[in-house]
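INFO  loader      accepted 1 record
INFO  loader      residues=178
INFO  predictor   begin
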Amino acid sequence: MSLCWNSLSMNSPSEYQPKLGHLNNPMQSMTLFPELLEEGYKLRLKVTGVSMAPFIKSGSYVTLFKIPVSKLRIGDIIFCQCDDGSFKLHRLIRMKNDLLLTKGDALRAFDPLVDKSGYKGKVVHIENFHFCGMAFQNMNNGSIRLLNFLIAKYQQIKTYPIFTLIGLRSKPVKSLSS
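INFO  predictor   done
INFO  writer      dumping tokens
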């Protein structure tokens, strides 16, 4: 899932807006996003990818905000910086120790594990466009939180064997020969 840099809006003016106006490409501006989120800004960004479809459609807007890692819940959609410097906006599937496992809803495979220091922010609001108008989703709403949790659990069940390979399963798997 990619984010469109020219749709950036912040909750208050800052010294960053002139910097963002002079950047030539989306990847340059995205490098400022973690710093802005760390300073307490909310960022409203346009989604231009399909990895989170149908939950987040291309053309929708998401609002990101940094909350403590300890307050993240399974199913939250988080903004992370990967080891290679790239960014992703995917669903949190599992957390163990200092590692986060994420996955795009429309993707077949899990993302590479991300260290908790790679977490930059959480989606707190989604604006999806529909044929009859715009639908607003508050991601802290109880029914939306439950839906996100169930989607994450479904992703786990759908790819159950992978958890044993990456050590995120809490109980040992019984061997077929025992």
